[in-house]
Amino acid sequence: MWDYPLENEDIKNMAECRINLRGNIISTDTTPFEFSLAEINTTEITRFCQKSEKAVFIPEQMYLDHAIKFCSLLHASLYIPENAEENAQLTIQAKKFNDICVGNSYRLMYLGATDKVKEGQWLKVADGKPIEYSNWFVGEPNGDTKDNCLVLRRNDDHWADIVCDYELCFSCGTTNKDFLQLRGLCEEKEHQTRFC
Known about the structure:
The chain is of the alpha+beta class. The chain has helices spanning 8-15, 64-73, 84-95, 98-101, and strands at residues 54-62, 77-78, 107-114, 123-124, 149-153, 159-162, 168-174, 180-181, 194-195.
């Protein structure tokens, strides 16, 4: 708590965990507090801004647009692995549901990217940014302008492109980004009371 207005740059730096600007009225670092049944831990401030994505596998087949909507209801987005370790973990998790998610096809589940906007440039469904990691099967992607959806294959941990007309299982990716919810506001929808 400060007795003066903070500069915009200071607020931005605190929100991005670059500085720990201690309040001159109350600061949890310097002001004595009484703790009851609590454990005190000290950590680097940068830890609070580290991305910690979690994938929740949904063993139910849906069309892509329904899967995206389902994930949004969980405050998440259609998941796409961002490195080989995440891809391997997702593959292990997904293969537990082979009997539910796969018929006679090589397609196991939707991944959260598409090249619908610009052919050959795969963009994340969540934020429209280009994917940096990929694990294409040999010869993929091969669908040109008609295969705009990305899938994880059933028999290995590789990716393929397909048309978006299938009901497939999927995974939702959530992050550790928290929000502050202000109660008592006269907003009709709950999301209007949330602030990052």
